[in-house]
Write a structure and sequence with these properties.
The chain is mostly helical and about 110 residues long. It has one domain. It has five helices and no strands. The longest helix has 22 residues. The radius of gyration is 14 Å and the shape is globular.
């Protein structure tokens, strides 16, 4: 049960984040620019997050979705730490927790 719930929460979280980044919400665009990424980087990030959500939803590709999700979150954490933008760590820790709970319960 925990395994299934954590998987769907994880997929939903990546889908939501992906949509926000892909549509280029002003706040997200400004954050990417502040960190030195090009303006279009949010679209790439959003696409990767949506792809991770889709891969997580399909049993045959679930492990690849988890790998992509973990890679995205690791890159986000490194970016936040590098720029000392610590207010982004709590939401990222939710993603880390969901990935960990899903991996441990697998």
């Amino acid at each position: 049960m925990v395994h299934s719930l954590s998987l769907w929460f994880l997929a939903a979280a990546f889908l939501g984040a992906g949509i926000v980044n892909a549509i280029g919400a002003a706040g997200a665009r400004n954050e990417f620019a502040k960190w030195g990424y090009p303006r279009w980087w949010g679209i790439v990030t959003g696409g990767l997050e949506i792809a991770a959500a889709a891969l997580l939803a399909l049993p045959a590709t679930r492990i690849w979705g988890a790998v992509l999700a973990a890679t995205i979150i690791a890159a986000a954490i490194l970016t936040v730490l590098r720029h000392r933008d610590y207010q982004h760590l709590p939401p990222l820790s939710v993603f880390v927790s969901l990935i960990a709970v899903w991996a441990i319960s697998s």
